[in-house]
UniProtKB/TrEMBL annotation:
Originating gene: aroQ
Protein name (record): 3-dehydroquinate dehydratase
Domain of life: Bacteria
Reactions it catalyzes: 3-dehydroquinate = 3-dehydroshikimate + H2O
Active site: Y22, H100
Site entry (Transition state stabilizer), positions: R17
Function: Catalyzes a trans-dehydration via an enolate intermediate.
Keywords assigned: Amino-acid biosynthesis, Aromatic amino acid biosynthesis, Lyase
Native source organism of the sequence: Candidatus Desulfovibrio kirbyi
EC number(s) given by UniProt: 4.2.1.10
Subunit and partners: Homododecamer.
GO molecular function, a single term: 3-dehydroquinate dehydratase activity
Xref: NCBIfam families: aroQ (TIGR01088), PRK05395.1-2 (NF003805), PRK05395.1-3 (NF003806), PRK05395.1-4 (NF003807)
Pathway where this protein functions: Metabolic intermediate biosynthesis; chorismate biosynthesis; chorismate from D-erythrose 4-phosphate and phosphoenolpyruvate: step 3/7
Length: 147
């Protein structure tokens, strides 16, 4: 089972953003935790981060040609307004789980809405690094239930 983790805009700055919202872990540390969990779950995991919306759209376009069974995505601020990323995710035939480090529902109103939600099986927000780990467990569970 191969899982792809997609990190969107500004998420390379984890560890240097507002610690009250985003803690102190860097993206590298978050990815390491995901690699550890992948070992435990006996799956493989790949990562992609970009600050360019078109690059994320093109990365999503290539997924159907790859041996990828599930996707975990934190699109950062694009979550709240990118219909281009929604349309790209909607092409996929594998489960997609949306995750957020912070509790977007307890923050500014514009963060309450995810325009990506229609293309996602579900979303997990507010648990910090654990949101990603829960997201990976969720997508693996979904893939197993499809077998
Ligand atoms: C975020 C929440 C978004 O609203 C914000 O724009 C981010 C990070 C999160 O992981 O909490 O950049 O996706």
């Amino acid at each position: 089972m191969n899982i792809l983790i997609l990190h969107g805009v500004n998420l390379n700055m984890f560890g240097r953003r507002d610690p009250a919202q985003y803690g102190v872990a860097t993206l590298r540390e978050i990815n390491s935790r995901l690699v550890e969990l992948a070992r435990e779950l006996k799956v493989t995991v790949g990562f992609f981060q970009t600050n360019h919306e078109g690059a994320l759209v093109e990365r999503i376009h290539s997924i159907p040609d790859e041996n990828v069974q599930g996707v975990v995505i934190n699109a950062g601020a694009w979550t709240h307004y990118s219909y281009a990323i929604l349309d790209a995710l909607a092409i996929l035939r594998v489960p997609v789980v949306e995750v957020h480090f912070s509790n977007v529902h307890a923050r500014e109103r514009f963060r309450h809405k995810s325009v990506l939600a229609p293309a996602c099986a579900g979303s997990i927000a507010g648990f910090g690094v654990e949101s990603y780990l829960l997201g990976m467990r969720a997508v693996c569970g979904l893939i197993s239930s499809l077998d």
